[in-house]
Amino acid sequence: MAEELSLAQLKARIDPQQAAALARNAEIVAGLGGPGEGIAQVRERADAARAVWNEGGPVMAEQRDLTIPGPFRDVPCRLYKPVSATDMPVWVYLHGGGFRIGNPLSNDRQMREIADKWGGAILSCDYVHVPEHRFPDPVDEVFAVVKWLAENAASLGIDSGRIAIGGASAGASVAFGVAFEARDHAPDLIKAIVSLYGVLDYNLDSDSIRTLGGGDFMLTRDGLEQIYNDYVTDTMHRADARAFATKGLFAGLPPVFLAAAELDPIRDDSILLAELISDADQPVRLKVYPGVLHAFFGYSSMIDRPQELIAATATFLRETV
């Protein structure tokens, strides 16, 4: 996107379906009494709003909640299987929410849609949140979950040699953290990585933040700085690839699919990471979806672009896992 576009021109690029979805979401949140006060109420109302967006969609042959032992607690997860089969590949998915909100059902409908198109299983997994936990606790927790999954795959009808990982926004940061951890300590554990508009760089001065981070496109520069600093409290960790993937060395990583939103202040994180991975001669795909904002994936019942992303994710998983 050209930097010389005015704010009015940029706002004119918003897909009408995206604008309608944002308006509908505002109605839903208002009907719940607003976004809430205090972390407990904010989480409760965010979950309730997501429940509305998750209505409908494909029916799974098997869908069940389970917990997996982790270093801090038993980790809540939901398993989706579109068909009754054994030795299925699995994608471990981590929700977004600024490292602070969200749960394994945040993208319940989208998980069912991807599983239906892909034909593989999905394990939507929780991770510990700010302010109760900070980096690297979420990475440590999910790494433990993935190792448990590999060791106990047969009991779930999963192929332990066909595990992918990924996530949206903050969840993508955690997913990459787990992938780096696995690359260094459990080679061949993870076969592919999917990042949906991920938090991938500690850079508050990118072109996309300077152009889109003023408050008209959901995320703001100041808000992002607060999110990053609340998650990574030790400034030394800002150079740790397990927190911000652009800081990493990429040799040995599995194939990566990076999806970004054109009108997302952190769009350039994904573009930069794609360049870095490609420069390291590692397999990577990048797709920037026009006309949409951060978190557009969650509006798949109302916007066409998420359906394109769902199809692309299913194709990538089918080809790599």
TL;DR of this structure?
With 321 residues, this protein is α/β, with parallel strands linked by helices.
Mean pLDDT comes to: 97
Q: Give the neighbour order of strands across the main sheet.
A: 1-2-4-3-5-6-7-8
Helix content class: 40-55%
Oligomer: single chain
SSE order, one letter for each helix or strand: HHHEEEHEHHEHEHHEHEH
CATH topology: Rossmann fold
Given as residue ranges, the uncertain stretches (5+ residues, pLDDT < 50) are: none
Largest sheet: 8 strands, mixed
Strand fraction equals: 15-25%
The number of domains: 1
User: Total strand count, please?
Assistant: 8
List the total number of helices.
11
Rg: 18 Å
The CATH superfamily label reads Alpha/Beta hydrolase fold, catalytic domain
Description:
About 40% of the residues lie in helices and about 15% in strands. α4 (about 110-120) links the parallel β3 and β4 (about 120-125). It has an 8-stranded mixed β-sheet with strand order 1-2-4-3-5-6-7-8, with helices on both faces. It contains 11 helices and 8 strands. The mean pLDDT is about 95.
SSE layout and pairing:
Layout: H1 7-12, H2 16-31, H3 39-53, E1 62-69, E2 74-81, E3 88-94, H4 108-118, E4 121-125, H5 137-151, H6 153-156, E5 158-168, H7 170-185, E6 193-196, H8 207-212, H9 221-231, E7 256-261, H10 267-279, E8 284-289, H11 304-320
Parallel strand pairs: 3-4, 3-5, 5-6, 6-7, 7-8
Antiparallel strand pairs: 1-2, 2-4
